[in-house]
Amino acid sequence: MNFFMVALLTSVKTYFFESFLELRRVVWPTPKQALFFTLAVIIMSIALAAFLGLLDWVFAFGVKALIELHARVK
Question: What are the structural domain ranges in the chain?
Fold first, then answer.
């Protein structure tokens, strides 16, 4: 093997070893916290989707009204 291949393999090995060590230091959430955060994400996603849907409807209504107004003026 040439020098670059050895260096690449050493780098990959070091990366995975350090990643494993970092995962051991992670403070994982309790099941109750995980459920709470999951529900929070779902609720916020639904709220954002509803807001964006409403915004889309308002803009579509406004554009349609402008097109009809322009058609009447001609």
Answer: 3-73
| Contacts for 37 with CB less than 8 Å, ≥ 6 apart | 29
Percent of the chain topping pLDDT 70: 97
Residues of the chain with pLDDT under 70: 1
- Give the separation between CA 62 and CA 74, rounded to whole angstroms: 19
Give me the pLDDT at residue 6, please.
85
The Cα–Cα gap between 43 and 35 comes to 12
CA 50/CA 58 separation, integer angstroms: 12
Residue with tokens 């058609």: 71
pTM for this entry: 0.63
What lies within 8 Å, CB to CB, of 29 at 6+ separation is 37
